[in-house]
Amino acid sequence: GAKEGGRNSYRFYQADMTRRAQERLTQERSLRRALEEGEFEVWYQPKLELADGRLCGAEALLRWRDPARGLVSPAEFIPLAERTGLIVPIGELVLDQVCRQARQWADRGLLAGRIAVNVAALQIERSDYAATLRQALEKHGLPATALEVEVTESLIMESPNHARQVLCDIQTLGVTTAVDDFGTGYSSLAYLKVLPINHLKIDRAFVADLPHNANDVAIARAIIALGHSLGFHITAEGIETQEQLEFLRGAGCDQGQGYLFGRPMPAADFTAWMQQRRA
Ligand code: C2E
Ligand code: MG
Ligand code: MG
Ligand code: MG
Fold first, then answer.
1. What positions does the domain EAL occupy (predicted)?
2. Residues 232, 177: contact at Cβ < 8 Å?
3. 64 beta partners
4. Is the distance from the beta carbon of residue 254 to the nearest atom of ligand 1 less than 6 Å?
5. pLDDT of 1
6. Which residues contact 228 (CB under 8 A, 6 or more apart)?
């Protein structure tokens, strides 16, 4: 009867919960193994100055080369890494790899601009991130002008005072700061105006339908105007077409990244990409 069905569905529910808990545990274990076995790689995507097309830096994007699954996208494992705290050691690994790579590119006179590193909320909460940055720069004999840090609106809004302090410490080092995926979160303009921020990055959700979607046109123009009047530089993400590029350049957007210029690529490929552009 109904009672019996209820009991059964409860049992199913329990079985489902157990299965999901086990799945999570398995995933966490493989993430730990990935860290120990060196399965993480940093890929690089070029950033260009829109006015003249000059290469002005790159964004470091994490990839996991899982022997079983192949290349795994960060969207699939960053949330778990954040929940388990593994994002802290993973973030340090990314920073170390980026600094080592930046040193090599600087020595070969290849990359003049900054490499932007994505930072998760937990890294700012759990560790003295500015100190971590300073140590990484010192270890690799790198000037602070080699790096930029990208944080999200939600990271800022979770604890605005702490975030402001950390961003301030980061800027004091000489590393610049950017707000990533701008417009998709819920940051308050009151905080934005007092935060030590150098760049706003327009999320690619607003770029995808430019210049045909009138709302996205309005949003992109508004972010550029607001950002500029608050003294920020504006970067657009996800530029895939010439039309998008022309619209954004015309609207006064400063920098951009996207498949139109170059996809994220392994360090060796990015080296070749830079050498080829130069020739
Ligand atoms: P994000 O920081 O907003 O990075 C931009 C994402 O857009 C990247 O996805 C990039 O590959 C993608 N992208 C760039 N240009 C285009 C384009 O023209 N078209 C399309 N469709 N996509 C484009 P990816 O590499 O999969 O990274 C996803 C997210 O994972 C990142 O978003 C960032 O939030 C996070 N992430 C990546 N690396 C790290 C890391 O080292 N630490 C932390 N905490 N998060 C990271
Ligand atoms: Mg980013
Ligand atoms: Mg972004
Ligand atoms: Mg984004």
1. 24-278
2. no
3. 40, 72
4. no
5. 45
6. 234, 252
Query: Residue 104 has which token pair?
Result: 């090599």
Query: Minimal CA–CA distance to 35: which of 121, 99, 94?
Result: 94
Burial of residue 39 (number of CB atoms within 10 Å: 0-12, 13-18, 19+): middle
For residue 61, give the ligand 1 atom closest to its CA.
38
Rounded Cα distance, 105 and 89, in Å = 24
Give 210-228 pLDDT, tens digit per residue. Answer: 999 999 999 999 999 999 9
Q: What are the beta bridge partners of residue 151?
A: 179
Residue whose CA lies nearest to ligand 1 atom number 43: 118
Q: Would you say residue 3 has pLDDT above 70? A: no
The three-class DSSP label of residue 246 is: helix
> What's the predicted TM-score (pTM) here?
0.93
First to last CA, the chain: 78
Distance CA 119, CA 132 (A): 12
User: Which one of 86, 118, 122 would you pick to mutate in the ligand 1 pocket, going by the greatest count of ligand atoms within 8 A of its CB?
Assistant: 118
pLDDT in tens, 60-114: 999 999 998 999 999 999 999 999 999 999 999 999 999 999 999 999 999 889 9
The length of the chain, given as a count of residues: 279
Give pLDDT tens digits for 118-152.
Answer: 999 999 998 899 999 999 999 999 999 999 999 99
Q: Ligand 1 pocket test: which of 31, 43, 61, 129 has the largest number of ligand atoms within 8 Å of its C-beta? A: 61
Q: Is 180 in the pocket of ligand 1 (CB under 6 A)?
A: yes
